[in-house]
Automatic annotation (TrEMBL):
One of its GO terms (biological process) is L-amino acid transport. This is ATP-binding cassette domain-containing protein. GO terms for molecular function: ATP binding; ATP hydrolysis activity; branched-chain amino acid transmembrane transporter activity. SUPFAM superfamilies: P-loop containing nucleoside triphosphate hydrolases. Keywords: Amino-acid transport, ATP-binding, Nucleotide-binding, Transport.
Length: 219
C-alpha cells in the first residue's frame, strides 16, 4: 500500500529525516512512536506532499507519490488528521468534513453517511460551528474529515494528544473499528499508551531515523 524507501528531508538546511524506510501493507495498522521533535509530523507531511524529499522515494499503490501534486491525495483515497486539527473555525462541522469532497468534485455523500454511522455523535452536532466545539470534539471532526477522504489510507498524527481520557477512548474505539473496513492506517504517538492493542507493527523514530520495534507479543 505505502512504501517509504531511504527518504531524507531537510528544512532550511537542517536534516529532519535521515534515510528512513517504512512499509504499510494493505489493511494493516502501523504505529510510529517517537518523542516530540523526533520527525513524526515531518514524515506525515512528506507523505501528504507538503514537504519535498531531498532524496528517496514514497510509493503508494505502485505510484510515485513523492512526484504527485499534494492536491491529488484526496483523489487517491488518502486522508490526513494533522496534529493541530486544522479545522475552519467558522465552517459548520459538516462543511469541515466535506472539504475533501469539494476539492475532488465528488458529490457522493455516501461516504459522509458512513462516517455518521461510524460516529453518531458527529451527526448530532453537524450544524454547529467548529469553533464552538471542545478540543476533543474537534479531534473527532478532524478524524471524520480524514475518513471521508481516506478510503484507502489514513495518516493520523498524534490523534490522542491533548484529548480528555473519555474522548481518547472513543477515538481509539473508532480507529479499532476501522480494522474491519480493511483500511490501511498509520498512527503517530509519543508512546504506546493508546494504540498498542490495535497496531500490527510499530516503528520507532528518533532524531529522524527509523527502526522496526519488536512486538511484546511476538515471543
Amino acid at each position: 500500500m505505502l512504501t517509504i524507501d531511504n527518504a531524507s528531508l531537510s528544512i532550511q538546511g537542517i536534516p529532519i529525516l535521515r534515510d528512513v524506510s517504512l512499509a504499510i501493507e494493505t489493511g494493516t495498522t502501523v504505529g510510529l512512536i517517537g518523542r516530540n521533535g523526533a520527525g513524526k509530523t515531518t514524515m506525515m507531511r512528506a507523505v501528504m506532499g507538503a514537504l519535498p524529499l531531498d532524496k528517496g522515494t514514497i510509493q503508494f499503490e505502485h505510484q510515485a507519490l513523492h512526484k504527485t501534486p499534494p492536491h491529488h491525495r484526496a483523489e487517491l483515497g488518502i486522508g490526513y488528521l494533522p496534529e493541530d486539527r486544522r479545522l475552519v473555525p467558522h465552517f459548520s462541522v459538516e462543511d469541515n468534513i466535506l472539504v475533501s469532497l469539494w476539492a475532488t468534485g465528488n458529490a457522493d455523500r455516501a461516504r459522509l453517511k458512513w462516517v455518521y454511522d461510524l460516529m453518531p455523535e458527529i451527526g448530532r452536532f453537524a450544524d454547529r460551528r467548529a469553533m464552538t466545539l471542545s478540543g476533543g470534539q474537534q479531534k473527532l471532526v478532524a478524524l471524520a474529515r480524514a475518513l471521508v477522504a481516506g478510503s484507502n489510507l489514513l495518516l493520523l498524527d498524534e490523534p490522542f494528544e491533548g484529548v480528555a481520557p473519555a474522548l481518547a477512548q472513543r477515538l481509539m474505539e473508532v480507529i479499532s473499528d476501522l480494522r474491519r473496513e480493511h483500511l490501511s492506517v498509520l498512527i503517530s504517538e509519543s508512546d504506546y499508551t493508546h494504540s498498542e492493542k490495535v497496531v500490527d507493527k510499530v516503528y520507532a523514530i528518533e532524531r529522524g531515523q527509523i527502526s522496526l520495534m519488536p512486538r511484546a507479543d511476538a515471543a
